[in-house]
Amino acid sequence: MDGSDVRTRDQPSSVPRSPAEVSAPCRVAAPDEGISHEELTLAARNHGLPLEALRYDVTPPGLHYILVHYDIPAADADTWTLKVHGRVRTPLTLDLAALRALPPVTHRVTMECAGNGRARLDPRPVSQPWLVEAVGTADWTGVPLRTLLAEAGVEPDAVEAVFTGADHGVERGVEQDYARSLTVQDAIATDPEVLVAYEMNGAPLPPQHGYPVRLIVPGWYGMAHVKWLTDIELTDAPFTGFQQAVAYRFRQSSGEPGEPVTRIAPRALMIPPGFPDFMSRTRVVRPGPVRLEGRAWSGRAPVTKVEVSADDGASWQTAELAAAQGDPWSWRHWHAPWTATPGRHVLTVRATDAEGTAQPLTQPWNRGGFANNEVQRIPVVCCQ
């Protein structure tokens, strides 16, 4: 038997028997482990908000953060349909024209990825390596989900609505369409009002933001806002799909069931002042008055206070918080004066909401790296 015979005979054993065999389990980075090639690949596919874009009340679509779990589906608006079925009296199949014919509403909603801040944790959960930039605010136009459910007629025994998108992939060994659920109570609520949206900032959804139709769940982290929406099923039992029962849960170890990730924790971000060094992004400012400003939001209760510090949290001053405008689930502008003096400084900002919850100075760790709302820190050098 020569070498070619051996390779031919052994080849089948190296071929995966299913897509699940090419999908690695989740893990936590080893001490001092750098960002992996796989994480860099994710970072190249997904992008965050450039922090200077916090100047815009409404984020331009190309600057709004993006997280795509699998591939952006090839969607055709002419053939797209949305099915509403399961525990309903009258199943619906709607095309885009039928959806647009219903009375539209528009909500301005701040959306944040549940993994925002993950890369700052130690040890680092290995996944999309966000710092603080996974956020954006848009005007979303569509039909209230409760309108569709009222037309379909939800049966009394329905407990959840399951939302399925057209994006398909494999994650931690599970082949799946991306799907999430809400309780019926959350699905039909008036505040926040869930939308089946087909426009972003007055134009059709861009492909990366869920064209032609997506779900918008104000106040919830981004995993709930199912993109490329094709199916809504009312069920008489809680949904146990991967994205609901396995992913997006707070865990300290891999074996525990964990608590679900839901609403956005309070956060404030600052537009980095001055100008940056290209590689390090260290900010440089001139001595004298500097206006500090940014945005603050929470998905749990309205933001009531924003504070800034120029000495890494040793002392704080209260910023001026702009009045809430329009939708309560949108961020609010804040600003504060600072007199820069020569030397090195660490600027910090934190938000507190109406429930009394303030951003932590250090973040409790969880295995998925979720809801990390530790305060933002910006190193600044003030030159002579």
TrEMBL record:
Cofactors named for this entry: Mo-molybdopterin
GO molecular function, one term: sulfite oxidase activity
Matches recorded under Gene3D superfamilies: 2.60.40.650, Oxidoreductase, molybdopterin-binding domain
Alphabetical list of InterPro entries matching this protein: Ig_E-set, MoCF_OxRdtse_dimer, Mopterin_OxRdtase_euk, OxRdtase_Mopterin-bd_dom, OxRdtase_Mopterin-bd_sf
Species this protein is from: Streptomyces dioscori
Domain Oxidoreductase molybdopterin-binding: 69-242
Full protein name: Sulfite oxidase
Taxon lineage: Bacteria, Bacillati, Actinomycetota, Actinomycetes, Kitasatosporales
Domain Moybdenum cofactor oxidoreductase dimerisation: 287-380
Chain residue ranges for the region called Disordered: 1-24
SUPFAM superfamilies from the UniProt entry: E set domains, Oxidoreductase molybdopterin-binding domain
Biological-process GO terms, alphabetical: sulfur compound metabolic process
Amino acid composition bias (Basic and acidic residues), ranges on this chain: 1-10
Keywords assigned by UniProt, alphabetized: Metal-binding, Molybdenum, Oxidoreductase
